[in-house]
Structures are given as C-alpha cells and as structure tokens.
Amino acid sequence: xxxxxxxxxxxxxxxxxxxxxxxxxxxxxxxxxxxxxxxxxxxxxxxxxxxxxxxxxxxxxxxxxxxxxxxxxxxxxxxxxxxxxxxxxxxxxxxxxxxxxxxxxxxxxxxxxxxxxxxxxxxxxxxxxxxxxxxxxxxxxxxxxxxxxxxxxxxxxxxxxxxxxxxxxxxxxxxxxxxxxxxxxxxxxxxxxxxxxxxxxxxxxxxxxxxxxxxxxxxxxxxxxxxxxxxxxxxxxxxxxxxxxxxxxxxxxxxxxxxxxxxxxxxxxxxxxxxxxxxxxxxxxxxxxxxxxxxxxxxxxxxxxxxxxxxxxxxxxxxxxxxxxxxxxxxxxxxxxxxxxxxxxxxxxxxxxxxxxxxxxxxxxxxxxxxxxxxxxxxxxxxxxxxxxxxxxxxxxxxxxxxxxxxxxxxxxxxxxxxxxxxxxxxxxxxxxxxxxxxxxxxxxxxxxxxxxxxxxxxxxxxxxxxxxxxxxxxxxxxxxxxxxxxxxxxxxxxxxxxxxxxxxxxxxxxxxxxxxxxxxxxxxxxxxxxxxxxxxxxxxxxxxxxxxxxxxxxxxxxxxxxxxxxxxxxxxxxxxxxxxxxxxxxxxxxxxxxxxxxxxxxxxxxxxxxxxxxxxxxxxxxxxxxxxxxxxxxxxxxxxxxxxxxxxxxxxxxxxxxxxxxx
Length: 664
Prior knowledge:
Blueprint: E1 2-6, H1 9-19, E2 23-25, E3 28-31, E4 34-38, E5 44-46, H2 49-52, E6 73-75, H3 79-93, E7 97-101, H4 106-119, E8 125-127, H5 135-143, E9 146-147, H6 152-180, H7 193-209, E10 214-222, E11 225-229, H8 237-247, E12 252-264, H9 272-283, H10 287-299, H11 321-326, H12 332-339, H13 373-388, E13 394-405, E14 408-419, H14 423-426, H15 433-442, E15 454-455, E16 458-465, H16 474-482, H17 491-496, H18 505-517, E17 521-524, E18 527-530, H19 532-540, H20 544-547, H21 549-563, H22 569-588, H23 601-625, E19 642-644, E20 648-651, E21 661-663
C-alpha cells in the first residue's frame, strides 16, 4: 500500500480524488492502492526545557543558558493531534512506500519530516513537489515524484531555523524577563521579532525628536501654470519676502522649453511580500489577512503557491501562459489583444536562474467564481499583474519649462502619457481606483509655451513646515524587513537585498501579529506605534546582536545557504550556542537594577489621549503661523498681492494707487 500524507484535510481530499482513493476511513481516505492521510499543520514541536530536566522548569538566572546536548521533538499536547498521529503511525508502519505531500516549502518539509521521525517508518519515501493545486498540477506531480533525499537540505534549513529560534527565544526571554521584567509579565525576545520591533522604535525615536521648522517657498502663476523658484526654500521669512518683492510687478519671461520622452516598464509579478504590501496600501489589509486569503485561493486552485520570495517565472511556464490567460474569465477585454499574437518573453518575467523551488504568484486559469469581496480584491491584483507583464511599456513625455523674473529663476514641469501601455490594465479594475486617481494627479499637461514670451504673473510666498519621517505602516514595515531595515525604493536593488532580509516571507505576517499580541506595538489608523513597553524593551537591550536588523539579516542569509547546501547547519547551531552564552554573561554582568515598566491598557489609553492633544496643539500653532497675508490677493483692488512693508502689510500695486493697508 502507498501512503500519502498531506498537510491539511482539504488538500488530502483533492489528492485522494485525483489518485482514486475515494473511500473514507477514520483519519484517512483509501482506494486504488493508496491511503491518503493528513496532519493539521504542526503535530510535533521541539521539546520544552522541562522535558530535558526538571531543573529547567523554574525560571532562574542560575539555569541559563539552557542548551540541550541533543534536541528532541514531541507530540503536541492535544487529544485531536494524538488521535490523528496514531492513525498516521499505523498507516506508515504497514506502508510499502510513503509519499510526502506536504506544502512544497521549508515549513511544509519540517512538518512532515517530524511526523515521520516520530512514527519511524522503514519503507522508501518519495516527495510530491507542486506549485499549484489544480488537477493537472497534481497529476503531473505524481508522474514526476522525487526522492525525499533531494530535499534534505531544505529540511536541515527548517530544523536549523527552529533550533535557532528555540535557543535564542527561550533563553533570551527568560533572561530579560527575570532581570528586567515584572512578575507575571514575561518579556518576549525573538530572533526576528526583536529586530523588527527595533526598526519601529528607531523610527518613532526619529519622529519624537524631530523639531518642525518653518520655511518659505517662492512661486508664481503665469498662464495658469505654477512656476517655482529653483533656488529652493527660504529658511528665513525676510529672505523670502525680499525675493517676493523683487519679482512683484515685473514681467515673467520664458527662457526655454524642453520635452523628453521616457518609458515605464510593467511592474514585476507578485511575490508574497509585494502582494502583502499592495493589499495593505490599497485595501488596509493586514499582512496576516492577506496571507490567509492567498493561501485559501491557492487551496481552491485559483492561484499558485503563495509563500514565495521570487518575482520571476521559470522558462517552462511560458508555453502554459496563453491557456492561463484564456482561463481568466471576466478579463477578456484585457487578454484579447494579447492572445491575438505571440506573447512577448522577457527576462523581467521569465528567468529560470531566479527561480529555486517555486515561481512568482500567478493565477492558474481556473475560473474564479463565488469569491468574497476581499478574495476578489486579492485575486484581481494577481490576475491584473499577470496580464500587465505582457503589455508594452507606458510611454510618456516630460516637459520642463524654465523662466525668470528679474534675476530669480523659475521652473515648471509637466507629464503627459503618450501611450498608456500596461497602465491600461491598472486602470481597468475597481481595485485600482485609488491608485489611478493618484496617477491622474501626477499627470500634468502644460500649455504651449514659446521661448522669449513674457507677461504678467501672480507671485506668492507660501509658508511651509518641515515634516518628520512617517510612521511605519504594515506595508512599509514589510519592505523594511525585506531589506534588513534599510528603506530601498529601487526595485532591482531591493530584490538583490532579499537574501539578507529579516525572516521569511511566510513568517513576517506572524511576527507583526506577535508584536501586537505582546503589546509592544499598537495601530493608529494604518500607523504602527511602539508602546512604552516596546520602547523600554529595546532601550534596555544593550546586546546589539539581539536587536540589529543587519545582524539578523546575516543569520537569515546563512539559513538560505543551508537550504542551498552551501553552509553547514552544525556550524550555524554552534555559532548560536556561543552567541547565547555571551549574551547571558553580558546581561548577568549588568548591575543597574533597571526594570521595564509594563503599561496597562488604561495607562496606554491615557497616553494616546495626551499625545493627540499635543499634536492638535502643534497643528493649531502651525495654522496660526500660516495666517500671514503675504502673497494673498489684495481684497481692495483684486489685482495686486499683499506684501510686507516696514510698519504694515500693503498691496503690491501701491505705486498704481491702491491704498490698501493692514497693520501688523
């Protein structure tokens, strides 16, 4: 008998249907020479400290560091888990062959290997490796089963990650909770969560320490077009007013008109992080919600495997793309122009060297029916992105007009879309409304200007204030985790830095949720705010290794190298053991007796109210300062603008007889 083991009951039923195991049994399906069973995600876990020795049951500094001589696993303490494992164990004991049908990724491999390690089968084990759950993909996968040994390095990477998280998480959590915490309130420390919290706290520190300063911008309106002084902002109001007076009443002259054409390539296909970023930015979805939705779409055969960090397709997918496009019902207006000719094949989309286990997230071509609004939003993004990569570049013209008044140089720029190209796809769906509105605002068409022309204009001097950095949202935090805390806008550079990112795409959502559960961060609208407890924890940690995004990124790179069979997992674990020992000794030497204050919900609410009141007061002060009449139209004659004199504000046309005056 061939025993297949999947990661979820729903996946097992799909596999059983394809291979003919149609008879339902207790905990498995049977038929056609197969028995198909399942786990519920993790049935097994690493043993806890007290499972090794009773001395580690109590939290005491004298027990640290806790480093087992050999790590072991155990079944989770759950009656349902124990019943299902008993079924799996019996099936494996009598199996001729086992097929590992777990999710095709590091976590899926770890889940199944631990179950088999616990059940101890003696028969050969094969591996089903597929990127989508369509009937065709399952059949193709069963016709091309792999030897499980081909994925030993994948398992070792997952095992090393789990052991590393155990070593650092359990030791550091006990260490800091006993040393700096309060009874009954443990301080959670993690290999990924603590550096992530440090990113948020550092940004918040920059915001809190930021002092807003006023500055003034000189501009003028000529032929309904706003020109801005190229000199930039004035840090002193007097300098701005002097420049304003210089250009008042003098003609505006056009010096040059330059037009330059440019191209904008289609965006890359989605990996999990970029999909989570867009769903948060466009729909306000949390990273965890997006992951749950895309996982559901995958299990319903509508999209490919989601837990990926590549934005490329392997070359063998190219011949399948026309059929996928044909299967996208409701998108015929977009796909018809593509299907009438041969699809373009570019390295920006198809590059087997950039694909390891799985390719980018794309639709499967199976009709997407009966979706909820949230599912439809996510599916639309994936479908439209897949269509867009086959569309031509968007071409546009950028116009730069230079002019001057007296000796003050002025500049205006405009952008005009010449051929929308892939923008046609972005503007097609309702899900892109917010983005297309922004794009429309960016497109500014200037009137025709002629070099040497001149005429009257209306100058203004506008007071503005410097603004602090923005709080992280889940979207920008995911990008920061992807690049180890460095904000990188360039798509190519960001892709190159992924190997040193914090965490894996599939775990980042859970890390953010953990920070919420620990009350280290909270959300105000879309902004992620560090709580006093979170700030206190980061300020207390003086071991850079625990909170440095860069160092954590180095760990992540080593784990990726283990997966690629380029780094020794034993060396990784030994390095961590040594680092944990150094961390414990470092903290034990601290005689400061400082404690981290755990903030209650009530106290947190009071601090939020106080912060909002302070913000409102600051905004009111800015608004009052911005009430200066300088640059505003004269209420008396309506032709001049207000300027500042020695003793009062007055109209710029005072030489022409306007007597408007306004005392300071």
